């Protein structure tokens, strides 16, 4: 490689440079430099990308030693190999003490932040233009790369109809930084977007061109004007033509875009589409019924837009597996291609299903080292199960996978010669159509590890490496364990900055039969460390916030784990849409590397609009007393949210969330301050809330609330919330007897600090199968905090989940709470304002009741009054029904809301019609359909012992006339015995708990 990049200004320098290239050709008169004392070695400019220590260690040329031309050449090669220099010149200057060597250097530059700004008409958006530049963060920079980047951006703009777009690069060389970065900004002016012109069709298209044009959808169907050109629209147009030909059974049709010509006069882009229609090909199932939808699913010729032998073989295999999964375990599928005649051809799939079977038994024999349940857990084959697998789950492919899985398990535990074979028994136990699969395992001899030696581990703790190994003397030997050890060792080295570490192993027979001696050989290579961390791309976000989240420090080992951990921390700030991490010039031969982070800040404003609805016993007259338990109703809901993030560049945010429905109107203003004092486990939020709610049919509640909350994440599973809430709640449209009106209608001010503990150890929060979920909320309302009522509030909930085999999940949730007043003379229930009481019942707490209908009721109207104690227990047995997405649940709920803790009882019946302090039980069946956001849930519940109560059938005016006793003999026609009802139904999204 030619390492001398330019000629020198000084003649001695020129001759010395020539000597470096061809030392044997050095003229005799210049041989005097060879062997002269090197009086001085100097670099110009004085500021170098490498430290003086690095240069001193790298150069074989030393001051005070004789000059060797080979040493100068080696010095230049080593300097160039670092990647930090674009040009190096050497100047030899005579001096009184010998010769002075001066290295004249020009630094390399590396790609930093790449951005696209200006008048950009999307598509493409700025991010797509930045990606089209293909300038990787940290890569060496050159002028040629800029030209290639601009060409790529112009191609992208042109493919989106922006043919007159202008792109101008601006380079910002960070001359004051040691990182040698150049930030690149592309100023883009999109200009007008061209529209499509009439496509030119070439080839053999065998179809009316007008029909093809319609399939492209390049033209608006009403106005018949041409749509603007975009890359997506062009691709969709070609896909539309392909779909057109596929619908005509021309499965081998070839559709391609030959070119697209821009007509500047009409500002239109005219695509040329080449079409080779190919023959009409029909896929015919013979011997069994299959819909075209099933053929398209299992035969990949439709997906690949081609008909070839390999795809047909794959389709035949897929069809065989499909029929075998339907119980036709002897099914065989072959295909036969017919020749093209009169532009038509066909592929016949010859299907022989055989008799339908059921897989009723799976037997495993020969296993001694592993028990049968452990092996069954790893198998895909399943015996018959009602609804889910009515014929069992079996196919030849699944059987082979199970054999491989079991054999791999044995081989991974030292049984290197283990083999698994199978036998099929038709007519098992004399029953035609029922089959059994028997797996016979030949375990063979287990090979153990005699000794293990690790060589080459010098710069890391060898004891720490040995403690992580799977292969230990006396344990089973397998190549799988060796592979695990290799990955663990190399990961340990990579995390400590040894990217070139290698691992080799060998196994030799030990002196003891059945054992091997293992040797691991490690070649560590050079350790790399962090030279500096450089963050770019932030415009609003303060550098201090970024720096506080960068865990890497100069001198730290260059660990990929630490690099990605910092990248994750920057993402977690919630202010960046993209964080790129890279090592600058990773191939350069230097131990100290720059770690680069380049960030794109997310939009600071976001807007969201949502539509929803509720369905259940939520209806009923809003200004009358009929149906205190509600009637089946429909409640539409609209939400509107707007948020502003990254306030003042410190990741604070403020949001306004609104929700309007027939039952609830809410406005919530929230200010969030994450990572207090740069501690990621501490977050503060301030919230203001106004709500007008009719969720509880007893009254309308108006609530104005302000709260401050500090959240502290103790562990991955445990979080504490410290909250101070101050609210004022008013009640209107109260539907209770007159004697309680004066007290319950009074607006109440409550000031309450609270502590909330959340511990989540579930395997999946959306659809858990095992684990524990616990919450505890404790609050104290007291005059010292501005509260007009004094009480202690405790609410605890615990849910557990158990997997019963592969199919069943037993889930249980228990909720207990109490509100206890103090400094109050009188009944406990009267001391607690209506809005502060416990209300419950419904799809997430107690399905024996409609929403918020549990607990004490007004003795005259039957409307719920809430309580100061709560106990709910829910148990579900969850199971699959059909396939993987449809499941069911059998459930039992019991519990209630109680007047106070002393009134809580586990009785199952009412003492009288005014007694509500007993346990209400419900059983039921639920259906679940899995979706990405949680299961759609339909629950049907039967209440075994529903409460009965007096309900008032009149109007509010009639209630006022009735006075204290609305059920007096004079009002008997309006006061009637009512009940919650035995049957309840609920429809929602998400598991019950």
Describe the structure.
With 993 residues, the protein is α+β, with helices and mostly antiparallel strands. It has 8 domains: 11-107, Ubiquitin-like (UB roll); 110-189, membrane protein fhac (Ubiquitin-like (UB roll)); 195-276, membrane protein fhac (Ubiquitin-like (UB roll), Roll); 280-352, membrane protein fhac (Ubiquitin-like (UB roll)), CATH 3.10.20.310; 358-442, membrane protein fhac (Ubiquitin-like (UB roll), Roll); 448-523, Roll (Ubiquitin-like (UB roll)), CATH 3.10.20.310; 529-597, Roll (Ubiquitin-like (UB roll)), CATH 3.10.20.310; 677-683 and 694-989, membrane protein fhac: a member of the omp85/tpsb transporter family (Porin), CATH 2.40.160.50. It contains 19 helices and 40 strands. It has a 16-stranded antiparallel beta sheet, with no helix packed on it. Strands 7, 8, 9 and 10 form a 4-stranded mixed beta sheet that branches. A hairpin with a 4-residue loop joins strand 28 (700-713) and strand 29 (718-732). Helix 1 packs across helix 3 (69-81) and helix 6 packs across helix 7. The radius of gyration is 39 Å and the shape is globular. It starts with 10 loop residues before the first helix and ends with a strand. Residues 1-30 have low confidence and may be disordered.
How are the strands ordered across the major sheet?
23-24-25-26-27-28-29-30-31-32-33-34-35-36-37-40
- Beta content: 35-45%
Biggest sheet descriptor: 16 strands, antiparallel
CATH class of the largest domain: Mainly Beta
Low-confidence runs: 1-30
CATH architecture of the largest domain: Beta Barrel
Tell me the Rg in angstroms.
39 Å
Number of helices: 19
